[in-house]
Amino acid sequence: PFLTDQWFVDSKTLCIPIKKKIEKEKIKFHPKLWINTFNHWIDNIQPWCISRQIWWGHRIPIWYSNAGDMIAAENIEEAKKQLSLINKKAVISHQETDVLDTWFSSALWPFSTLGWPKNKDLLNRFYPTNVLVTGFDIIFFWVARMIMMGLKFMKDLPFENIYIHPLVKDEKGQKMSKSKGNVIDPLVLIDKYGADSLRFTLASLSSQGRDIKLSDKVVENSRNFITKLWNVARFAQFNNFKYRKSFDPNNNKLILNKWIYFRYIETKKNVIESISKFKFNLFINELYQFIWNDFCDLFIELSKFFIKEKKDSIAEEIESNFSYIFKGILNMINPVIPFVTEKLSRELKYKKTSLFEESLHENEKVEYDSDISEFIKVIELIKKIRSEVTINKLVDFELSIELNEQVKWVKNNEFLIKSIFKLNEIKYTNHLINSDNTFVVEGVKFSLKTKSSNVDNNLNIEKQINFYKKEIKHFESKLKNNKFLKKAPKKIIEKERDKLNLAIKNLQLLNKKDV
User: Fold this and answer.
1) Which of 101, 278, 316, 511 has an alpha carbon within 20 to 30 A of 324's alpha carbon?
2) DSSP output for 194-242
């Protein structure tokens, strides 16, 4: 090999302040495991060769004199001034021909792009930033070098959080390669499904520490979800729903509206928590479940029965509640699908300016009262009937309850239950129910009866019994675990006990036999 002179940086000295920041947990990686890799590199760092013998790049700012002097200066004029102080007879002959290593130039990026060292306004405004998003393969090459330079010249970290995004692979989990012919062109996907669909897909698959398996099918599923939002907007336009700024959802009277507002606030808390922890897949999953299941499949469908009643006060409350929550939904999901949300927000006249200006951290509160508790039971009953029993024709169809006295949460929501399933009445009986179409909800035993063969039985009693046996075993095991009992808050422990007691009661009801 032909040995040449190179320029080096004393990286070990530059890493001393980095170690102190690591000890104080000022540098945070997401996922956390990457801090170990980063720490290992910092501890074992070698002198950094920063010179490259190529045409393109930042030329190393060293000037040579005809007497062999080397001057580090910002420009040739400055170099001449410095040379005159040390050797008046010498003259500048040439500048160093080597250029800086790409990563050296990139390391200066957080502040050199903001006019450093002269423009203090931009620097004060944008340095340091909150988050750096990057790939694991350049943690050492770029992330570590930016931190080195930031601490050296700015005396502060360039960012506090480093989010390491997953690697995007093909649907079989293989790395994309031109030779394999498995490269997925994002521009093709955008043309086919839209930019929002692709962004939604990547966010939903971004579980920390795992690679993304990308395919047309998953992007198509995301487009279908976005289409659901368009349909929700059409529903609002069809019913001429208007957004009222003065509306306060805490004044809701209708139990359906109380419940959906409670679920909205609950979802929002979980969304903010997931985003703050950089768990983007959980953020998307939380919103997806709320929008698709709670808002669309339950709230909108159930609200139609109340709208049919044509009572002005109820209709107005549903309209205001719908608009308030749908605006909040668009705001929460705006960072992921901005094109669609901005369009819908303007069409529905929710906001004249961009949703980007809207804060997620609005001071919204809701109290968990008996009405919401009751309605959660009603929803479980509705879901049980819908999912476990296939109803082809609603002829001679009746719902029976094994009790002499009325069940409060059923009685208070009788109109809704009857409307959904077109029931004439809900019967109460002291006769022990033990038919094939028997099931238990919240410690109450129900049975579906029909004179004709219009109910396809999916409610296997043994299957239900086995389910509750497993539930009891699970909760008993959890409540015997000393670690759980010591660490978990009292409220959580009480909830687990309540779940155990309910599972025991449900099992007892299912095990009852006719006398």
Assistant:
1) 278
2) -HHHHHHHHHHT--TT--EE--HHHHHHHHHHHHHHHHHHHHHHHTT--
Cα–Cα distance, 375 to 412 (Å, whole number)? 9
Residues 6+ apart with CB under 8 A from 76: 63, 92, 95
Return the structure tokens found at 189.
Answer: 């996907």
**150 with 111: CB under 8 angstroms?**
yes
Rounded to whole angstroms, the Cα distance separating 111 from 91 reads 34
Q: How far out from the chain centre does Cα 103 lie?
A: 32
Q: How far apart are CA 298 and CA 420, in angstroms?
A: 11
- Structural contact between residues 48 and 13, judged by C-beta atoms closer than 8 angstroms: no
Residue 143 DSSP one-character state: I
The Cα–Cα gap between 278 and 163 comes to 7
Contact, 134 vs 142, CB < 8 A?
yes
- 8 A C-beta contact, residue 128 and residue 159: yes
Query: What amino acid is encoded at 83 in this protein?
Result: L
Distance CA 297, CA 302 (A): 8
CB of 396 closer than 8 Å to CB of 315: no
* Nearest-angstrom CA–CA distance, 394 and 384: 16
Q: Which two tokens stand for residue 205?
A: 């698959």
Q: 76: number of CA atoms within 13 Å, CB side?
A: 8
428: three-class secondary structure by DSSP = strand
- Global pTM exceeds 0.85: no
Question: Mean pLDDT, the chain, as a whole number?
Answer: 86
Measured distance CA(430)–CA(509) in Å, rounded: 13
Alpha helical stretches, state H, 389-489? 408-411, 414-421, 461-480, 482-487
pLDDT in tens, 101-134: 999 999 999 999 998 988 888 999 999 999 999 9
d(CA 200, CA 213): 14
Residue type (1 letter), 11: S
**pLDDT, position 422:** 78
Q: Do residues 442 and 377 make contact, with C-beta atoms less than 8 angstroms apart?
A: yes
Give the residue among 331, 318, 224 at the shortest CA–CA distance from 275: 331
Rounded Cα distance, 17 and 158, in Å: 13
Q: Which of 147, 166, 247, 254 is nearest to 209 (CA)?
A: 166
Looking only at the bridges linking them, the beta strands covering 397-402 and 426-429 are: parallel
Q: Please give the span between the terminal C-alpha atoms of the chain, in angstroms, as a whole number.
A: 97
Backbone angles phi, psi at 94, to 5 degrees: -165, 165
